[in-house]
Amino acid sequence: MGQTNWTSEQREIIDARNENILVSAAAGSGKTTVLVERIFQRMTDPVNPVGIDRFVVVTFTNLAAAQMKDRLRRRIDEELAAHPDNEYLARQSVLVSQAHICTVHSFCGFVIKNYFHRIGLDPAYRQGNEAELKMLKKDVLEDLLEEEYEKEQPDFMELASMDLFNKNDQGLEDMILAVYDSAMSEPFPKDWLKKAEDLLQVETEEQWNDHPVVQWVLTNCRYMAEALDQEVDSLLDLCDEPGGPYMYRPCMEGLKDILSSLMQARTCGEWQDVVEGISFGRLSSKKDEDVSGEAREWVKKRYDACKKKIQSYAQMFFFQPEPEHRADLKQTGGKISGLLRLTREFMERYGETKRDRGIMDYDDLEQFALKILLRWDEEKQVYVRTEAAGELAEYFEEVMIDEYQDSNRVQETLLTSISRQGLASYASNLFMVGDVKQSIYRFRNACPELFVEKMDAYHGEQAAGHRIDLHYNFRSRDTVLQSCNQVFEDVMHRDIGGVEYDLDARLVPGASFKPPEKGRFAGKTKVMLGLTGTKEGVALKREDEGYLALRYIQDIMNPQDPMQVIDKENSYRPAEYRDIVILMRSIRKDGQKVYDILTEHGIPVVMEHDQGFFDTREIQILYQMMQVIDNPLVDMPLAGVLMSPAFDFTEEEMAKIRLRHKDCGFYDAMRQYDEADGVYEHIQQFLDVLSRLRSKVTYASTAEILQDIYDETGIYDKIRTMPQGIQRVANMDYLMEQARAYDEVTYRGLHQFVRYIEQFRRQQEDLGEVNLFGQEENAVRIMTIHKSKGLEFPVCILMGLGKTLKVPDRKAVRTDSEFGISIQAEDPEISTIKNTFMFQAMGHKNQMESLGEELRILYVAMTRAKEQLCMTGMVSSLEEMGLDYNSRSEMNHYCDMVLPAVYRRGDLFDLEVLEWQDLVLEEASQQKEVDREKDRLYNFDTSKVYNVSMHEILELRKTVREEKEVLPVKVSVSELKEKSMEELDMEEFHILSAQEEPDEEPVPSFMGGGKEKRENAGAAYGTVWHQVMAFLDFSHVASRREIRESLEQVVQAGHVRREDLAVIQVSRLEQFFQSELGKQMCLAYEDGRLHREQPFVTSRPAKEVLADSGSEEAVLIQGIIDGYYFTEDGIVLMDYKTDRIQPGKEQDLADRYRTQMAVYRQALQDNGPAGNKNRIVFFFPGKRSRVGILEDVKEHVSGICPYV
Asked: How confident is the model at residue 284 (pLDDT cuts 50, 70, 90)?
């Protein structure tokens, strides 16, 4: 039997009849279960049973529809088990698979299939492939613009002459598509385009003030002023308190008068007048020991913030008189009218082209269904139901919309047209369920305002329908729910995002969690914040956030005391990795970093890539191969293919081909190569394969050609033997699936398939890599918040609290359902661009809506946790944001939204703030254990086979040459160091870092613990010193003050970042410039003899500069000399080093850099005057500035003089 312990609200939903119903269902409230039970109870009503075929149930995804059908079928089967002779239930069980439980687009297809003849539509159509439709749009746009250029109509030429489009037409095409997409998200696209054009017609001041954009701005400004007025009242109270800064009261009163005037302003002109007359008072500098310094500083800080907020609104909206705003609208109006005309023309042509090819897109499904269901009544000047809509409304007993918060206005219009709302002799029958706090698909045109409008309309004595709120959450522990309540009561209000988190929205615990008999279980909501910035020469960076997650996971999975979680049988067990999910706003950039950190520390982890498919090595090789088959005359893809595992050309072979024929393309150079050697044979093998593949292009399908590439080159088997081979060949298989699907569309052939991939790459759209892991994999999961919607996890780690949320809107055109279209104004005579009032307003509105969306995304993330919630972030400060409208409108990180609650509710939140030293000891201890494990592995008997299958794979890899050791055409100086180190058997050398002590403790990997990361850290440290020494003004370094001023000039010039100067100690520079070398360099600088950062190219025999090479053949060496100057006796060369030199080991330094210094010497002697006293000088920025001089460099580099 189904669930019987229904709450009173759930029972009310199940039993309500004959009215429109809106269910506001909180996260975890069991809305789907209730929805299924409502359908079942209506199906089995003893008085008026409704067959499953008389319902329309619209879901957001096909997966959700399938799951709902499955739940309903199981519910029916439960009843059938108790009543096996019930023929009606048996028939309903069979009909479930054919029920109208589907997405809105599937239902549109049903309407078109049954009523296509009503609008004269050809029923022989198919759903267009996404890539096919993209290319179709591109082709239609290119033809349209070409014709427009020929016609030279004034509105088009004015639009096309904008500076935005001075390079090519891509920006114009994108602008047309943006307007088109906005129009198609409306129920009646042409009507919206007409409305957008009407909104441009503003002639008088009265029309301006009545304009919806202006009204929205004035309302927004009033919110700002009212919030500031409340804050000033609190500041005045603080001034009057004992110890308060009473001397600031006059300025506070002056500010309050300004705000009073702003709040009384009712028109744009009145706001303009007040803003122009504003004069902020200067705070008194009076001293009084009885006044609290903290209170004084706080009032001053908030006074400055209030002034800044008023000034920002003045600059945004009231930067010029109202008549000039209207002039801007008129100036941009002509271009917008031309843009609207182009959009209409594109809409017509694109539609005709799709009809000619017998395809439809999702917009077509919606628009044709609406055309079948609604018609324009000229007399009433409204859209009314057609006969088809009336028939469907009579047939369907109930129209149910799941996830109603994600509906848009098109879907709302369509589904309302088949409901009984407004029909005589019928009761209303719309049933809508969702949670507006979980509306997170604004980028798909979701319109949460619809839900909010219904919540208001269905509330109170004059309610237009029946509203039922589900508060109880049956998913999560009380602590998780109370944490959510506290956060969103603070920050989620109607003024931003349109959603009010009031008592009706609070989450109420509905599940009981008994404590375990032993062990620990979930506790407070954990908040882990890492402080970024440099301290004592070491810094935590944003990419180190993965270590916070690692630390928390290791604590949960502590084998001595693991966290206990409840399983499906409602009993406790130790937590497993599969119980943990890491949620991120986006995983494209940061997800891989977290994945790598967890993997390095032995944590099993899977990450479902939703992007990056075309960036993988194997797909790039195949893409380049297809480009070459399509056109071998393009050098870049040809070179990539030749040097890939498919053909294994070496750099030496490539160089020989190019040097043999320099004056033609690389493909022609290969064809003309006639030297009888191994290169010639290699070329012929490639050309034979290419010839066979190109011969099939005219008749073979894309999939057939791709299969031939696999067979002819053996690339499939070669890729299989590469690291992560299983994942790579899965990606290749997926590409084959894409090729087969592509062969079914109207665009055919390899050339068009290459175009298809180019479109994806150009628009920065991508496919995800193939997911090889199942849901039962015992591993931590990394996924986006959007992917987690509808899911739940025992332990949820939300990362990225410190990541910036607001992304600048750089779109050339801004559109809005209510406000229409705006663009920037241009003055072609002086080539300037200006943000107009309308452009600013739409940008600000979009920003506020985006902020509201981020609040809802945070809500979705926090409500995924069943038992334990942890939130992590890297932040630069721990300053708490205010909760007034202005403070909330400036929230730019999830941390801003969370911290107010965290600070006030220590009973709910456990805040842990970490700096770099907090992670050092723990990470170092773990790395000691790793080092011990490495020692054990290094002592394995390598002659013994431990894993037969792995041994076979490794042996197979030996037969596949992924890379060859070849003689390079040129090397860099940075590679020469390896030559000297290998000769001296030096595996590693230390890099100095600020305040570093010579100890043997392991360095944590986030600070450079692994060899690669330590080298990177040292390189970064050395880079800062090099940049400073390269750009410092040596004529202004006589004192510490002058050195600091010169360093500031280096920062202002953009040569180093200000935070990087933390590794530069002025005292060290002062000591250096007081040394004899420092003084000589300053003199050389003033005389123009000092040369810094000088590039050079020279040549040396390969055996002298390359490890494991005995060749006499010369190779080019390129590099940059840090500095040198000429003297009467010769050359003095400076090289800046950050190596650690232990006492008595000076000779090691000379040996380490012998090869590099010899190259420097030759480069300078080849290009400058020789002398008898050439010197190479090292500068070491250590604890005490040191200078080492290598004498007698004409013979070889040897010896180090005492430090000076």
From this structure: very high
Give the number of other Cβ atoms within 10 Å of residue 924's Cβ: 16
Q: Is the per-residue pLDDT at 1116 higher than 80?
A: no
**Residue that has been written with the tokens 């598509």 in this structure:** 177
How far is Cα of residue 746 from the mean position of the Cα atoms in its chain?
Answer: 34
Across 674-818, the runs of DSSP E, i.e. the strands, are 780-784, 793-798, 813-816
How many CA atoms, within 13 angstroms, populate the side-chain half-sphere of residue 880? 12
The Cα angle at residue 704 between residues 699 and 710, in degrees rounded to 5: 135
Is 399 within 8 Å of 415 (Cβ atoms)?
yes
In single-letter form, the type of residue at position 599 comes to: T
**pLDDT single digits (tens) 623-664:** 889 999 989 998 888 998 999 888 989 988 999 998 888 889
Q: What CA–CA distance (Å, rounded) separates 578 from 559?
A: 16
Q: Are strands 793-798 and 865-875 parallel, antiparallel or unpaired?
A: parallel
Q: Would strands 780-784 and 580-584 be described as parallel, antiparallel, or unpaired?
A: parallel
**Residue 1132: φ, ψ to 5°:** -110, 120
Cβ(656)–Cβ(684) below 8 Å? no
Handedness of CA 1165, 1170, 1171, 1177 (dihedral sign): negative
State the amino acid at position 621 in one-letter form: I
d(CA 406, CA 637): 43
- Is pTM, for the whole model, over 0.70? yes
Coil, strand, or helix at residue 169?
Answer: coil
Structure tokens at 431: 């049933």
Give the percent of the chain with pLDDT over 70: 81
Q: CA 1186, 1187, 1193: angle at the middle one, nearest 5? A: 155
Contact residues for 964 (Cβ-Cβ < 8 A; gap 6+): 648, 650
* Residues 682-739: tens digit of each pLDDT: 999 999 999 999 988 888 888 888 999 988 888 888 888 777 677 788 888 888 888 8
Given CA atoms 594, 599, 604, 610 in this order, what sign does their dihedral have? positive
CB 300 within 8 A of CB 248: yes
What's the mean pLDDT in 870-892? Answer: 87
Q: What share of the chain is helix, strand, coil (3-state, %, to 5)?
A: 55, 15, 35
pLDDT reading at 937 higher than 50: yes
What one-letter code names the amino acid at 595? Y
Q: Encode 625-663: b = buried (16+ Cβ within 10 Å), e = exposed.
A: bbbbbbebeeeebbbbbbbbbbbbbbeebbebbbeebee
Alpha helices, H only, 277-408 = 293-317, 322-357, 362-373, 387-395
pLDDT by residue (tens digit) across 1027-1076?
Answer: 888 888 888 888 888 888 888 888 777 777 776 776 787 877 888 888 88
- The kind and range of the H/E element at 1124 are strand 1114-1126
220 by Cβ neighbours in 10 Å (0-12 / 13-18 / 19+) ranks as buried
